Amino acid sequence: xxxxxxxxxxxxxxxxxxxxxxxxxxxxxxxxxxxxxxxxxxxxxxxxxxxxxxxxxxxxxxxxxxxxxxxxxxxxxxxxxxxxxxxxxxxxxxxxxxxxxxxxxxxxxxxxxxxxxxxxxxxxxxxxxxxxxxxxxxxxxxxxxxxxxxxxxxxxxxxxxxxxxxxxxxxxxxxxxxxxxxxxxxxxxxxxxxxxxxxxxxxxxxxxxxxxxxxxxxxxxxxxxxxxxxxxxxxxxxxxxxxxxxxxxxxxxxxxxxxxxxxxxxxxxxxxxxxxxxxxxxxxxxxxxxxxxxxxxxxxxxxxxxxxxxxxxxxxxxxxxxxxxxxxxxxxxxxxxxxxxxxxxxxxxxxxxxxxxxxxxxxxxxxxxxxxxxxxxxxxxxxxxxxxxxxxxxxxxxxxxxxxxxxxxxxxxxxxxxxxxxxxxxxxxxxxxxxxxxxxxxxxxxxxxxxxxxxxxxxxxxxxxxxxxx
Length: 470
Fold this sequence. Notes:
By secondary structure, the protein is an alpha/beta fold. 46% of the residues lie in helices and 18% in strands.
């Protein structure tokens, strides 16, 4: 018979064990970390690949929040939209954090900030200037702000609230530019409405390229938090209600372990080859490698190196915003220089090729694209190398024209030899290791040194040299 007291003790023990197991399981399942991803520099294909891959790999049961720490001048529209799609599809809340002090989230960085569930900035940072840069029909100032036309007074109207707004109508006038601008406005407005932020200022940032400091952004409800560092950010956003994947989530970020995930080797390699200067140099290396292989068939190394470089360059150029007319001029210039090597027009095709090459290089990349312009020094270096290559080919060509013929029938003219046997005006001579029939107006004794003055078929016309016999 079981004692009632023992039965109660067993029931209490079972309940305690159940509660311990339940709470232990809940503690184990609770997110333990905050993942920090770095966006430092221009936003391009490498950054988009890095952020989208990392956001796709995070697990909600392990990660409480993903923080995009940004310092960017902007970047490519396609890369920006790739990142925003990854943010909106993430099952884990994503916080944009413009940091450290002195950093900025300009252009594409502003759109990404609006797309995140939490928008935060460090003191001394700024964001804005989100006008698509290819639409600016006005000259660009060094800081990236559009220069107002004469008599416009910069479009400043002091829209109030310290938001630095402008009311000038400096928008693009052509239909295609207006379509792109209106698309950008609608896009950033939809992001603002998605997360309940200041949509009017977002439109102003796109239309008039205005910017805000961290304090003004917080006051105008452009961002949610001004935080000194990541622990301060995690403390301030703890308990906030945000929308993630269409559902409301209460953040539990207090006490999370901060884990920074640096770009891996793949991202670093992609960042290197998608640098416009590197892609440009790879294209030149590929072209000249193939030229040297054609000039010296069987060398192998120049051909293999050139083929690999050219394929890498084509891959990079496919991801970058290039002007196809400029690229065509560069390729035409290289083609004309190759033609100069094989045809030999004494510089006509070579000079035309260099002109096309320089013009195409200048046109190839948009000069105002932040972080994706081509350095003038790289263009100058490529031009100097190409011109030096053409000059080298021309020098070799002129030298070959001045050199006496060393093959064919004309090669024997002027050659020296020795008379072997002679009878009257004809006999046999030894020239270049071969015995030839010869005739001469002189009588030659065997062993006399002779020189060939003419050739008729297999008969040579020779004369005696005024030198001692060998």
